[in-house]
User: Which sequence fits this backbone?
């Protein structure tokens, strides 16, 4: 997958160009981007990290992209009666 295929609308590229962008703004842009990604989102994120993450490791979007490829934490047991009855 090429960077152009991973970011067809250029949302991630433009986020890296915005001066003073915050992490919350990056998350919002990421969600908009993720909705429109054709195919494997994780592969697309890895391509974008390779392109932008090395050049700008401290950029808020780099942090958002890194978080997107991390495995989700294991679910924990719910408390109360419902947690006991599901087992």
Assistant:
């Amino acid at each position: 997958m090429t960077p152009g295929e991973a970011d067809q609308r250029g949302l991630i590229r433009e986020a890296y160009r915005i001066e003073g962008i915050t992490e919350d703004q990056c998350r919002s842009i990421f969600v908009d981007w993720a909705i429109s990604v054709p195919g494997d989102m994780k592969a697309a994120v890895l391509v974008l990290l390779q392109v932008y993450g090395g050049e700008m490791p401290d950029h808020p979007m780099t942090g958002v992209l890194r978080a997107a490829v991390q495995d989700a934490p294991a679910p924990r047991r719910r408390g109360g009666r419902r947690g006991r009855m599901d087992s």
Remarks:
- The chain has six helices and no strands.
- The chain has one domain: 3-72.
- Helices lie at 3-6, 11-17, 23-35, 41-53, 60-69, 80-85.
